[in-house]
Amino acid sequence: MTETTSGPARGSRAKGGKGAKGLRIERVHTTPGVHPYDEVVWERRDVVMTNWRDGSINFEQRGVEFPDFWSVNAVNIVTSKYFRGAVGTPQRETGLKQLIDRVVRTYRAAGEKFGYFASPADAEIFEHELTYALLHQIFSFNSPVWFNVGTAQPQQVSACFILSVEDSMESILDWYKEEGMIFKGGSGAGLNLSRIRSSKELLSSGGNASGPVSFMRGADASAGTIKSGGATRRAAKMVVLDVDHPDVEAFIETKVKEEEKIRALRDAGFDMDLGGDDITSVQYQNANNSVRVNDAFMRAVEAGESFGLRARTTGEIIERVDARKLFRKMAEAAHACADPGIQYDDTINHWHTSPESGRISASNPCSEYMHLDNSSCNLASLNLMKFLSDDDEGNQSFDAVRFAKVVELVITAMDISISFADFPTEKIGETTRAFRQLGIGYANLGALLMATGHAYDSDGGRALAGAITSLMTGTSYRRSAELAGVVGPYEGFARNSDAHRRVMRQHAEANDTAQRIDDLDTPVWAAATEAWQDVLRLGDKHGFRNAQASVLAPTGTIGLMMDCDTTGVEPDLALVKYKKLVGGGSMQIVNNTVPKALKRLGYQPEQVEAIVAHIAEHGNVVDAPGLKHEHYEVFDCAMGERSIAPMGHVRMMAAAQPFLSGAISKTVNMPSTSTVDDVAEIYHQGWKLGVKALAVYVENSKVGQPLSAKTKDAEKSGQSADAAAEPERVIEYRPVRRRLPKGRPGITTSFTVGGAEGYMTANSYPDDGLGEVFLKMSKQGSTLAGMMDAFSIAVSVGLQYGVPLETYVSKFTNMRFEPAGMTDDQDVRMAQSIVDYIFRRLALDFLPFETRSALGIHTATERQRHLETGSYEPGDDELDVEGLSQSAPRQTQPGPAREGAAREEAAPAAGASRPAESERPAPREAHSSTELAEMQLGLNADAPLCLSCGTKMRRAGSCYLCEGCGSTSGCS
Q1: 8 Å CB contact between 125 and 30
Q2: What pLDDT does residue 936 have?
Q3: Ranges of H-type helices in 185-305
Q4: What pLDDT is attached to residue 96?
Q5: In angstroms, rounded to a whole number, what is the distance separating the alpha carbons of residues 924 and 294?
Q6: Beta strands, E only, 700-755
Q7: Does the active-site annotation cover 637?
């Protein structure tokens, strides 16, 4: 894409000196004399974004101008997130042209100022090519660029920050302040606390030190108070502790203990959902935690040996622990609450280009950026699907030549931005300007692999991913060496030149030894090999402009901006997507990549049509007409009946890792059936395979996760969850009352809530659960007694007409009014009101374990077992709901007699019974692809609701992304 015309140039060139002639830029996508804007069709649209839960308008701007091929979602995200100026004022941006021009012209002006271009004509080509690539969604800068560049506010371009803290109160307080300023700007930060002396060491005054875990509380409270960028989402932060720190066990257990607190408070009726009123009382919830392990520790784990924990002040071993037990503690904690993650210290520093300037001790919140303390990284990601080509005969290829030219363009722009960027602290500014860390990456890998007929967990899929990653990083460093010849190498290069060149050789050797699989990856490997040869040659001649070049970030909001089907290195979420339509409304569509994949696999058009129709109906490819079983794996996704195995995710990370400067933002999702041993094996294999960092998430391990969409009918009958969840098959019916027989089993319970006494009698059908409830409180004829009678009748009639008990439980638990307080029931120690207690007790007596567990209702025995084993299980003393008539009553004290006539008003219908459809939940509307997948597949999506618009979020790397409004829980 470019060629360099330069003589030797050193550090002065980075300040705009006259030692070099600059880069010559060639056109790739644009035409001389024609502006990129003139080649597309523009249209006006109205952007009105609402909170679907209450219908309130979150954002509104009408008449915005965008190309006609941009999706509704992309237009909404860009307009609401990135347009600058107050809405309704003349200063407000009104179209994509203004947004792109604001950014691109700033980059061009800085490039000219600092001597990057050989001539004004080259600067103009650079502007046009950059504009074209952004306009056509070929790549995107990270969000801070769109927020800040070209505005009157500080020109912050970095999304990722690493801080440092020393063993002094002054440094700790500086940490709080610096972190707060970064959160205020909408970004995230990480740091390693291992320099702070442990609670097992003494202060200079003679007292015991507090230890890093105690100081984490203050930082966590600060992060929770500030919020990120003044928005409703939490701040993004990473806290790392070395495995040889004496407080490592306390660090590992921090979130596990808080998770138990959340469960206890929730069971007591407090609002502990994400964003709930009471969740702020829980600590350590605003950070991702990771333990930094080294090779010595992992070898001790393998050998079953002891491992020394070292004093921070002297470095001497003050305690020895069993390495396997400590490693298992990490796995147990991660299994229970997803923290801590793991980072492999020796692997990370083996690929460090600047070790003479300091070790890599921490990462950004999502674990993809790893470099020196007090540094930052600006990100940009390419849309891989834009480089997939089809010839006239239908043969596919990845356009490696054009891909490399776009990488050169983007790396040039990213390096230019450091020349004019502002930073939140002077220390970060100094380090970033001295080492010029960049983070180019990509999105849509999952879609690309499927479209090319590759299973995500396959040798061919990993080979293509590795080849593209190698070509991207090799081209980036080649351009970095060319830039060093024009504007000088980074300031820290001279001191680290040997190490930097050693790492370049490591990348090149990994490229040379990688496995070539098929006709798609082999040409990409060849282009990557040529790029790495150039890197070694030009690096020896000029040095390098950037200490770091590439990472794989989550690509959350910018992935939506580029209309990507998949984020970062992730596989596809599901085969059916939720799509918003121009003019309002939405529809579900089968991924556009599916027909491409089927065509690549050799299926005829009529076969493709039949398979796509099957996927649209069922949400998966199982039993699709004409689809060969050996091709099922191509369509495996992150969710669904055929979800990708956890090790499939780890192997994909291992395939890309040797060709990245930094690391990979990715969480390995594991099914709810996973054990602690499974988590430990993932962490062990990550180290063996050379991954730099790993995080796991076991489904349903966190409190407050959304309920499964699988219906009771599906569970009982064994039919597929897909068929049970299909809204189209829900039958409308007139409810029929099913009366209880004259003789009915029942339970009578005496209870006390906040000092108020009462009795509850719950009668059931002999074979099918609860059928009536009656309550006795206060004296007969009193207002309270009358209200209890009326309430009992209403609930009982509803149950007999088929209203599920879980519906009543979800509606009436946590309802607050007096009397409230302590109860005499060991399973429900606190109640917010009488009805809160009643329906918690009914849930415990009549609902199956899985249903009430999802509602957060457990017996005392189950809660105790969870404390002992780390998992809830139904107790041996639980009532047999299916065979209630043979169960011993829990309460033998008789309750008051009560007439049953109130429940017998209507004449019984002969042979009346509830149809199977009556227990099926009413169809609900999807508001994102995650919700659609949950409905289609009958799965737990394991994602929080967006605090801005109420939409179910989806995972993007180590973070969560809202498809509705673009909010993220991460730092990019």
Answers
A1: yes
A2: 64
A3: 212-226, 248-267, 295-303
A4: 98
A5: 49
A6: 746-753
A7: no
Find all residues with CB under 8 Å of 682, minimum gap 6, and list them: 646, 647, 650, 668, 670, 694, 696
Choose the catalytic residue: 286, 364, 444, 546.
Answer: 364
pLDDT band at 231 (very low <50, low <70, confident <90, very high): very low
pLDDT on residue 51: 77
- The average pLDDT across 210-218 equals 89
Helices H / strands E in the chain, number of each: 29, 28
CA-closest candidate to residue 764, choices 746, 790, 749, 750: 746
Count Cβ atoms within 10 A of the Cβ of residue 583 and give its class: 0-12 exposed, 13-18 middle, 19 or more buried. Answer: exposed
Average pLDDT over residues 145-169: 94
- Alpha carbon distances (Å) from 21 to 3, 120, 203, 485: 11, 12, 58, 10
Helix extents (H) in 657-743? 676-688, 712-717, 721-725
Which amino acid is present at 415? Answer: D
The whole-number average pLDDT for the span 363-379 is 96
Of residues 592 and 586, more confidence is placed in: 592
Any idea of the CA torsion for 615, 621, 624, 626, to the nearest 10 degrees?
Answer: 120
pTM: 0.76
**Residue 925 exposed, middle or buried by CB count within 10 Å (0-12, 13-18, 19+):** exposed
Measured between alpha carbons, how far is 16 from 488 in angstroms, rounded to an integer?
Answer: 10
Query: Which stretch, 18-27, 47-56, 65-74, has highest mean pLDDT?
Result: 65-74
Q: DSSP 3-state assignment of 654?
A: helix
| 591 carries an active-site annotation | no
**pLDDT tier for residue 589 given thresholds of 50, 70 and 90:** confident
Under the banding of pLDDT at 50, 70 and 90, the label for residue 937 is: low
How large is the C-alpha radius of gyration of the chain? Answer: 30
Position 624 pLDDT exceeds 50: yes
**Token duo for residue 44:** 């006006």
Per-residue confidence (pLDDT) for residue 707, from 0 to 100: 29
Q: What is the pLDDT of residue 120?
A: 96
Strands 160-162 and 188-192, by their bridges, are: parallel
Structure tokens at 368: 């993809």
Tell me, what's the pLDDT at 19? Answer: 43
The CA-CA-CA angle for residues 954, 958, 964, to 5°, reads 25
From 366, 564, 946, 959, active-site residue? 366
Rounded Cα gap, residues 434 and 430, in angstroms: 6
Of the pLDDT bands very low, low, confident and very high (cuts 50, 70, 90), residue 438 is very high
Residues in Cβ contact with 441 at an 8 Å cutoff, skipping those fewer than 6 apart? 368, 379, 380, 381, 382, 472, 550, 551, 552, 553, 555, 568
HSE-up of 250 (CA within 13 Å, CB side)? Answer: 15
Name the least confident of 719-728, 920-929, 963-972.
Answer: 719-728
Annotation says 366 is catalytic = yes
Query: How far apart are the C-alpha atoms of 481 and 314, rounded to whole Å?
Result: 42
Can you list the positions of beta strands (E) in 493-585?
A: 576-580
Report the Cα–Cα distance between both ends of the chain, in Å, rounded.
28
- Of 12, 75, 970, 65, which Cα lies nearest the Cα of 568? 970
Torsion of CA 218, 220, 223, 225, to 10 degrees: -70
pLDDT, position 342? 98
Report d(CA 750, CA 895) in Å as an integer: 7
User: In angstroms, what CA-CA distances link 613 with 255, 447, 925?
Assistant: 45, 19, 21
- pLDDT at residue 478 in the model: 98
Listed in sequence order, the residues at least 6 apart from 843 whose beta carbon sits closer than 8 Å to its beta carbon are: 805, 806, 809, 813, 851, 852, 855, 857
Please name the amino acid found at residue 410.
V
d(CA 557, CA 147): 12
Strand partners, 759: 750, 776
